[in-house]
TrEMBL record:
Protein name: Phosphoserine phosphatase
Gene label: serB
The protein's Enzyme Commission number: 3.1.3.3
Keyword Iron among record annotations: no
Organism: Pelagimonas phthalicica
GO cellular component, one term: cytoplasm
Cofactor: Mg(2+)
């Protein structure tokens, strides 16, 4: 059995749209997980026109279809930049260094898969040379905002015994803080090298990129004694694709077009609580 999920901005999901789709595809009884925001219905098989209908509704709703079996996951594996937080940390550091526009362009191209991740990271970090180490605290305090729904996602899954890991191509100086703010059980990222209280313009080796995120998926699931099918992974950039395509539920959240094209599950209207709706949690179940 399959589940058809509809998630929209709060108060904008129309009952008529849900009923019309259910009737057109011969689905079962619709269940509202959150009035005006999230609904779903079971379906015996995927409709031939699913992709066409999904494309026609892009501006209104996140329409996804996936197997009903095993939908509640035991672990969340999350990217940080533009996923658990609303910024790219390296772009914010670059603003402090006066090279913001240049670095943002490189970041956007790297996240869209147009540039080699490692090379792009090395190039951008070099532009941060001689920034005082204290700039990290400044950026965290003044420039970083959490993505809505993150605390609720982690608290709800952890109440059910879930595990939460933050795996970023960014930097430990930020993941350690964000991990603590949100309640992650562990975090992995790259290291910004510092000497005499200043950034050296270099990043520690080996660089944590796409393959390292897959390794994290393999290592942490093995440690916990669970399978990759028990994981919901979430990210937005090209370096997330490895873990997104391997996890049991890989969600492209407000992702780059090239990333969405390679992910079956896409969320553009909802926030991080959409990952709970996809697992079948109702809003009343949220912590």
């Amino acid at each position: 059995m399959l589940i058809v999920s509809l998630i929209a901005k709060p108060g904008t999901l129309d009952t008529a749209l849900v009923d019309n789709l259910r009737n057109a595809w011969g689905g079962g009884v619709a269940v509202w997980l959150s009035e005006g925001e999230a609904a779903e219905f079971p379906l015996a098989q995927a409709p031939e026109n699913f992709d066409e209908v999904r494309a026609s509704l892009l501006d209104q709703v996140d329409l996804n279809i996936f197997p009903e079996a095993g939908r509640k996951k035991r672990m969340v594996l999350a990217d940080m930049d533009s996923t658990m937080i609303q910024q790219e940390c390296i772009d914010e550091l670059a603003e402090e260094a006066g090279v913001g526009a240049h670095v943002k362009d490189i970041t956007a191209r790297a996240m869209n898969g147009e540039l080699d991740f490692d090379g792009a990271l090395i190039e951008r970090v070099a532009l941060l040379k001689d920034l005082p180490e204290s700039v990290i605290d400044t950026v965290v305090a003044n420039r970083i905002t959490l993505m809505p729904g993150g605390k609720t996602l982690l608290a709800t899954m952890k109440q059910d015994g879930g595990y939460a890991a933050l795996v970023s191509g960014g930097f430990t100086a930020f993941t350690s803080r964000v991990s603590q703010m949100l309640g992650f059980d562990e975090n992995r990222a790259n290291t910004l090298l510092v000497a005499d209280g200043k950034l050296t313009g270099e990043v520690g080796r080996p660089i944590l990129g796409r393959e390292a995120k897959v390794e994290a998926l393999e290592q942490i699931t093995a440690k916990l004694g669970i399978s990759e099918a028990d994981v919901v992974a979430v990210g937005d950039g090209a370096n997330d694709l490895g873990m997104l395509t391997r996890a049991g539920m890989g969600v492209a959240l407000h992702a780059k077009p090239s990333v969405q094209a390679q992910c079956n599950l896409r969320v553009n209207h909802g926030d991080l609580t959409a990952l709970l709706y996809l697992q079948g949690y109702a809003k009343a179940d949220f912590v």
